[in-house]
Amino acid sequence: MTFKLACGDVMPGCTARFESNDRSQLMEQVGAHAAHAHGVTEVTPAVRQAIDGAISIAA
Q1: Helix axis angle, 45-54 relative to 23-38, nearest 10°?
Q2: Can you point out the beta strands (E) in 1-59?
Q3: Of 10, 25, 41, 45, which cross-links 20 as Cys (Cβ 3.0–4.6 Å)?
Q4: How far, in Å, CA of 22 to CA of 4, rounded?
Q5: What is the pLDDT of residue 36?
Q6: For 7-20, what is the mean pLDDT?
Q7: 1, 21 in Cβ contact below 8 A?
Q8: How many percent of the chain have pLDDT more than 70?
Q9: Are 59 and 5 in contact (CB under 8 A)?
Q10: Which of 7, 2, 13, 55 has the alpha carbon at shortest distance from 32?
Q11: Which of 17, 16, 7 has the alpha carbon at shortest distance from 47?
């Protein structure tokens, strides 16, 4: 199972994409990117919900 996220689905205009076989690792990648590229240092419940809703799962 592969977890995928296109940052642009959460942050319009961003072209970064993430993929991992482990959801926790995906979230670490996304968190590091959000802090570095977007200045997001706190994942609020609303941000978490948006990220969770944008993650797709491929077999």
Answers
A1: 120
A2: 2-6, 17-20, 56-58
A3: 25
A4: 10
A5: 97
A6: 97
A7: yes
A8: 100
A9: no
A10: 7
A11: 7
